[in-house]
Every structure is written in C-alpha cells, then in structure tokens.
C-alpha cells in the first residue's frame, strides 16, 4: 500500500498505478466517475501491469479521491497494490478514459464470472425499465467474463456476444463513461440481444423470452426435468421436493447415490434446509456463489442418500432469479447437465444429444458459452472454507505468485484434473476439468491447455512442462507430446507444494503430511500416507509413511472397500470370519483374499484413503462405491454422530504409522457390539492423534514450526478440526489449502510451484 496521505498533502498532481483484478471489472469508468465527482482532471488507462491513473487538482480533492479509490473499489475488483507518485501538474482540463492498446504480453487478468448485481436485479424487476424480465441483463459490475471470452484483450469482438450488434440505446450506454454499462462487453437488451427459448423433448420451440421462462417454471412445478442453460454450461433441474421427479432424474442420469446440488430461491429457504452460520452465509453470497456443503436440517428423499450434508447454492444468473420469480419450486435440484461422469454439456448440439432421454425440456439461451465452467464447491471447516471444486466464479484467477520468470505449464493429475499456467510468475489455475479416464474429459483437458496457453501467450518451446511422475497417466503422456522442458513431479510432494505456493513459502522448512487415495511413489508403489520434511527450495524429503499394506487389484480396489480391507487385514492376526455377522462382507472379499494369497496382481501401498475404506467396510460399508471418496465420507458422517471418545492405538515406529493395532481394535470392538458411530469416531481420533505425533516428532527433529496438510483425506472436516485442536496444544501452526482444493484439483499448482523452485525455471 502507499505512503500516508500527509506526505502527499502538498501535491497538485499524482500518478497512481493499481494492480490486482482491475481490468474487465468496471474499474476505469469507476475511476472516471470518482475523479469527475472530486473535480479532478487527468486520465485513466489500462496499462501493462494494471490500471494507470493521472489526477490533477487540489490536494484535498486528491486525498478524497485516493481515499474512495482504496476504500470503495468496484465490487468485482480486487486490489493487490496501489502505488502513488507525485508528478508535475501539466494543466489538463478534463478527465478522460484512454483507450487500451494491445500490449506485448497480456498479463491482464481475465476476471471470473460474476453474479448479477443489486442494481441490475432492481432493473430486472422494474416494469418501467427496458430490461424488465430480460435474462441477459448485466453491467460492468456483474455478469459473465471467463465463460464468454474468446481472446484478450477483453473486448466485445472477442466475446461470444460478437454476433449481436448493439442497438442505439445499448450503444449509448456502452460509450458513456458516466454510465454503469460503459464498456460492459456483454451489454444487451431485448431489442438487440439474445433471448431464452423453451424447447420440448422433440426439439420443438414452445415459447421465447419471458414466456419461455414462465413456462419452464410451470414445467418444473409440474414435476418435469428441465435442462437449463446457465453461465458455464447446462444444469438439469427439477423440484427437489418431488420424490418422483428426483428419482426419475437419478435413473435417467445413471446416478445412483452421488448427492445432487440444490439451488434455493434465497437465504431464508436455505435456512430451512441447512444449518447456516455467518461464515456459511458469507460464502453462499460471495461473488463465486459456490455450492456450499452444509449440515442438513431436513431430509429430502433421493437428493443426498446417506449423507448428513446438503450442497446448496443461491441464484447467480438473472435467469435463475426469473425462474424463481416465475414460480419455480423454491428448492430445485440443479445438477450438472451430463450423464454420469461425462463433462457438463455447454453447447446446444451437445445438450440435445447427450441430455435427450433425461430432460423433458430445454431452456436454451442464445448466448454461446465459450468454455465449460462447472459450479464451484466449498466445504466449511474450522480452518475456514475449503474449496472442493474450484471452477465458476473462482477460475481462472491468479492464486499464487511464484519465484520464476520462465513460463510454466503444469498439467495436473488424472483425477479431478486442473491445469496451471504460470506467466511472469503469476500462477493461473484453470477451472475443474474432471477425470481423464473419460474421453470427452480428455478432449476438454487438451482444449483447456490450448485455450489458456493461447490466452496468456505461453510459448511452450520456452516453457517448463510439469506433469505427474505416474508414467501411465493420460496427463503425463499428453505432456510428453508437448514441446518444452519436461519435469516429472511426485504426486504427494505436489500436494504439499500447493499449500506452500498459496502461502508464498519458498525457503522455510516445514513438516508436510499428504494423505490421499492414490499417487505414484518414488519406488513405483502406490503412495497415499506420506510425511515430508523440507522446503520448496531445498526439496521435500520423505521421512515417514503409513506402514505398507498390500492392495489386491491395485487402484481398482478403490471401487470396493472390502477389497482394500482384504489387503490391509492380512497383516492383522486372529481375524474372525468377516463374511459372518456382524461384518457380513460379500463374496468380493473372499475373491480379494484369494488374490492376496496368490500374490498375483497385488501391489504394495501406503494409501491412507484405503485405510479409511477398510475401516468403513468394517463399520458396515460393504457394497461398492458409486463415486470417489464415498466410503470415507460415509465414515466421517458416522463419526460426527458420536461424542468424543478415546483414540485407537496408531503408533509411529521407525518412520512407520502402524495400522495393525488400530485395525485389531476396530475388529474387536465390532465383535463386542460397540456402536459403529463410536468406532468411526475412535478411528478419526486415532488418525488425528497420529498426525499430531508425527508433526511433533519431526518438527522437533528438524526444527520446523509449521505443519502442512493436503491431499483428499484432509477434506474431512472432523479430522481437520481434531488435528487443529491438538496441534494448538503443541503451539504448532497448521496450514492447509485455501485457494485450490486439497484434493487432486490442487496438484497442478503444486507441480508448477516445484518447477518454479527446481532451479530450472529461474
Ligand atoms: Zn449489474
Ligand atoms: Zn440493445
Ligand atoms: Fe492426490
């Protein structure tokens, strides 16, 4: 921030440079209005590294200007730094907005998509306004950005609005610096802009404009499933309280158990469904308008089976507000417009083909979507909101500044893939792309690499291309086809590095614990319960890990918790017959035991995720999972129902966390008939205690004061809460991810950070 105002009190002119998210967010018109209100002359322009301003006038006016600039910037702007320099006044008479020039290097930050603002909402429902009930209303303070941009700099001809010439009224607003729509690139109105249409399952148009929205609301009330085009793709919507509609959606979408997200009309409706506190309200109403996972207060059959939480979001597009105003049910299922694990549909052709047979109708918007951007997902924890899926409203903003000037492309991991592009040290993380074992997702992955590299003009010949160390990952193999200098990064080091990158921590020595389901280890085995000591500059050395177990069938065991159990439990003595009561393991368990006995297709593993699966199986989750992490989530929800209990033994000996006494105790307690919620809780307490034991021991041995945790296991709010409480007693600080997900969605940032610090990217 700049120097105290007193030092500027003699000035009659100054130069101001503002950096951060200040372009494409209405910053220049804001400065124009502010300067003219203050009676100042001068100019404002988009510069190489932010917005540049010159103001001339009385020193009190300049003070007032600077004060407002810092305290009340436009809602979508994020100011990182303001530099103020005194200059000689040159006698400017007016204040002008200078046109932006195409720069050498676009380090411009394209802003994420924004929810409709309060001013636009007021106009939307004002019968006297010319945009009354117009679903594409927006202004410089709100509306789409990333989902409509085709290239930089961000100007209308390089957006998906290029085919709608402005009418005279819109043009006047667009060119008037005093107007809220000055240079609002997607500006439009019912006279000149795109519209929504309602199309039935036979692709026949039923209505257009406001009538289409009215009719869609009617269909939703009647229990139909409607595909609704939003900001970053299609949703499938239905009445969440209509059991038959929800069931039909599950069957048609081939989605067995994975929870559906909900969109509720407003906060009051949200408060009926879930437990809301101030922190949750803040996240729900934040500009990203993410899906927030919160403890359920009601049971909605079929929406989130066997889950104690509901994923809730508020309306964000004008269309959503209109649907609710038109009488759509106040609680809508709003799930991604796709079939099971495919990527979300975002073009009409795609939606008609892939969603036919699922949707009874399509609420189609004429404005094209430039790229698919799913809803972001956030979970509330004691350490604050943790991002589970980082996408709409958050991507592609800068999440870290890395110590390198060389361009970097990091391609992430194969599950929950994201990519990261680093240009002039600024790390841009893409939206959530998905799991690369589905071909359409692979296409989205390569398209996103092309897209972001083009947008930020990354010259791959000059770049470091970082990828996972797994030789069989799709992402690895794609990276190896690209030019540039290749760098393999071990998965769990990338998890830890993602946290360090967010915090700008390059040299401090930390103890890092990366717990997840699977990742390729240095020795080629399946890692997932790893402890490191070191820093980004000196490297992360593996000092401890979960005791090795065998995994029959390798990564395929992730589908069947009992299969993982067969591998982990061979190490436990005097095991009872687990196919009998109270365990009742299915035949999949016996088959897996035979595989273990034969030793064929068995892989060594230190996966903490599979240990969670094993305990879940012992507590009664004996079926196969239908989405990743399901068994661990089930176990966490079970544990949350229990009061605090003593932890099971989970000793650390010679760098190994020994799970054998832990599992023996779980088996014994189950045979004794102890309540499974208590067993699940004692297991969570054991893992938390083990994290703390490891942290204390290695922090002391290596003189570290900070503990870094990452990996999918640490999305577990109960575990995080217990670890945080216990570490506080030892006066050790706990860091986890806050800008990218702790799951594999954060891997690309970690890879980029390791590449930036590896000495090759300087
Ligand atoms: Zn607005
Ligand atoms: Zn118009
Ligand atoms: Fe991972």
Would you give an account of this structure?
The strands form five sheets. An eleven-stranded mixed β-sheet has the order 7-6-14-8-9-13-10-12-11-15-16, with helices on both faces. Mean pLDDT is 93; it is low at 1-6. It is globular, with a radius of gyration of 27 Å. Helix 5 crosses helix 9 (318-325), helix 13 packs across helix 21 (747-757) and helix 17 (630-640) crosses helix 19. The protein has 762 residues and is α/β, with parallel strands linked by helices. 31% of the residues lie in helices and 22% in strands. The longest helix is centred in the last third of the chain and has 27 residues, at 676-702. The protein binds zinc ion (2 copies) and fe (iii) ion. One zinc ion is lined by residues 166-167, 169-170, 188-189, 191-193.
List the helices and strands and how they pair.
Blueprint: E1 13-21, H1 27-37, E2 41-47, E3 50-56, H2 59-71, E4 78-86, E5 95-97, H3 118-124, H4 168-175, E6 196-200, E7 205-208, H5 210-221, E8 226-229, E9 234-239, H6 243-253, E10 261-264, H7 267-273, H8 278-284, E11 291-295, E12 309-313, H9 318-325, E13 331-336, H10 348-355, E14 361-365, E15 377-381, E16 384-389, E17 398-401, E18 408-410, E19 420-423, E20 426-429, H11 439-455, E21 464-468, H12 474-481, E22 485-489, H13 491-503, E23 510-520, E24 526-535, E25 539-546, E26 549-552, H14 561-569, H15 587-598, E27 602-605, H16 608-618, H17 630-640, E28 652-653, E29 656-657, H18 660-672, H19 676-702, E30 706-710, H20 717-729, E31 733-735, H21 747-757
Parallel strand pairs: 2-5, 8-14, 10-12, 11-15, 18-21, 21-22, 23-30, 25-29, 30-31
Antiparallel strand pairs: 1-3, 1-4, 2-3, 6-7, 6-14, 8-9, 9-13, 10-13, 11-12, 15-16, 17-20, 18-19, 19-20, 23-24, 24-25, 26-27, 28-29
The structure holds zinc ion (ZN) (2 copies) and fe (iii) ion.
């Amino acid at each position: 921030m700049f120097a105290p105002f007193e030092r500027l009190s003699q000035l009659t002119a100054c130069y101001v440079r503002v950096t951060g998210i200040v372009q494409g967010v209405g910053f220049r018109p804001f400065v124009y209005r502010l300067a003219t209100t203050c009676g100042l002359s001068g100019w404002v322009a988009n510069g190489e590294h932010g917005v540049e301003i010159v103001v001339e006038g009385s020193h009190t006016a300049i003070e007032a200007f600077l004060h407002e600039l810092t305290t009340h910037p436009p809602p979508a702007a994020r100011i990182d730094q303001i530099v103020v320099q005194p200059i000689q006044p040159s006698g400017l008479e007016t204040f002008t907005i200078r046109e932006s020039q195409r720069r050498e290097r676009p380090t411009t930050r394209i802003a994420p998509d924004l929810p409709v603002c309060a001013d636009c909402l007021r106009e939307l429902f004002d019968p006297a306004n010319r945009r009354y009930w117009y679903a594409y209303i927006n202004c410089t303070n709100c509306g789409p950005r990333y989902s409509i941009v085709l290239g930089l700099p961000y100007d209308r001809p390089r957006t998906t609005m290029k085919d709608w010439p402005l009418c005279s009224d819109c043009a006047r607003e667009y060119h008037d610096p005093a107007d809220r729509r000055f240079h609002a690139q997607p500006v439009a109105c019912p006279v000149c802009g795109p519209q929504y249409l309602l199309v039935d399952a036979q692709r026949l148009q039923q209505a257009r404009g406001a009538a289409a929205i009215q009719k869609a609301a009617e269909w939703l009330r009647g229990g139909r499933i409607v595909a609704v085009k939003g900001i970053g793709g299609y949703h499938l919507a239905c009445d969440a309280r209509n059991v038959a509609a929800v069931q039909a959606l599950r069957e048609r979408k081939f989605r067995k158990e994975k929870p559906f997200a909900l969109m509720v009309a407003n906060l009051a409706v949200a408060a009926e469904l879930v437990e809301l506190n101030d922190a949750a309200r803040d996240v729900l109403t934040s500009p990203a308008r993410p899906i927030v996972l919160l403890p359920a207060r009601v049971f909605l059959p079929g929406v989130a089976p066997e889950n104690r939480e509901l994923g809730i979001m508020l309306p964000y597009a004008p269309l959503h507000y209109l649907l609710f105003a038109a009488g759509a049910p106040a609680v809508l299922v709003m799930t991604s417009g796709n079939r099971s694990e495919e990527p979300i549909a975002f073009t009409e052709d795609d939606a008609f083909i892939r969603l036919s047979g699922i949707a009874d109708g399509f609420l189609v918007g004429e404005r094209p979507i430039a790229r698919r951007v799913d809803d972001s997902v956030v979970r509330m924890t004691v350490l604050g909101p943790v991002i589970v899926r980082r996408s709409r409203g958050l991507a592609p903003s800068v999440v870290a500044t890395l110590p390198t000037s060389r361009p970097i492309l990091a391609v992430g991991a194969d599950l929950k893939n994201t990519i990261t592009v680093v240009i002039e040290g600024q790390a841009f993380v893409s939206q959530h792309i998905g799991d690369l074992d589905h071909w359409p997702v692979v296409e989205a992955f390569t398209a996103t690499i092309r897209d972001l590299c083009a947008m930020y003009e990354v010259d791959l010949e000059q770049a470091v291309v970082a990828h996972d160390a797994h030789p069989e990952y799709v992402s690895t193999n794609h990276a190896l086809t690209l030019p540039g200098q290749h760098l393999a990064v071990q998965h769990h080091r990338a998890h830890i590095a993602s946290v360090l990158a967010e915090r700008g921590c390059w040299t401090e020595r930390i103890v890092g614990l990366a717990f997840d389901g699977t990742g390729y280890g240095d020795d080629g085995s399946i890692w997932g319960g790893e402890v490191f000591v070191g820093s980004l500059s000196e490297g992360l050395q593996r000092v401890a890990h979960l005791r090795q177990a065998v995994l029959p069938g390798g990564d395929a065991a992730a589908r069947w918790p009992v299969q993982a159990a067969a591998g982990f439990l061979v190490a436990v003595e005097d095991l009872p017959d687990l196919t009998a009561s109270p365990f009742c393991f299915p035949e999949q368990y016996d088959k897996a035991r035979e595989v273990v006995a034969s030793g064929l297709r068995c892989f060594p593993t230190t996966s903490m995720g599979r240990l969670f699966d094993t305990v879940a199986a012992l507590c009664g989750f004996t079926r196969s999972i239908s989405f990743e992490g399901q068994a661990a989530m089930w176990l966490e929800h079970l544990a949350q129902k229990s009061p605090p209990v003593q932890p099971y033994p989970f000793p650390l000996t010679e760098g190994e966390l020994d799970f054998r006494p832990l599992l023996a105790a779980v088996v014994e307690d189950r045979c004794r008939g102890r309540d499974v919620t208590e067993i699940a809780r004692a297991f969570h307490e054991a893992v938390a205690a083990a994290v703390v034991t490891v942290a204390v021991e290695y922090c002391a041995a290596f003189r570290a004061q900070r503990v870094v945790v990452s990996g999918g296991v640490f999305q577990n709010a109960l575990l995080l809460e217990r670890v945080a409480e216990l570490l506080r007693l030892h006066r050790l600080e706990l860091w986890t991810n806050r800008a990218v997900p702790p799951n594999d969605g954060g891997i690309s940032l970690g890879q980029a950070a390791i590449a930036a610090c590896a000495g090759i990217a300087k």
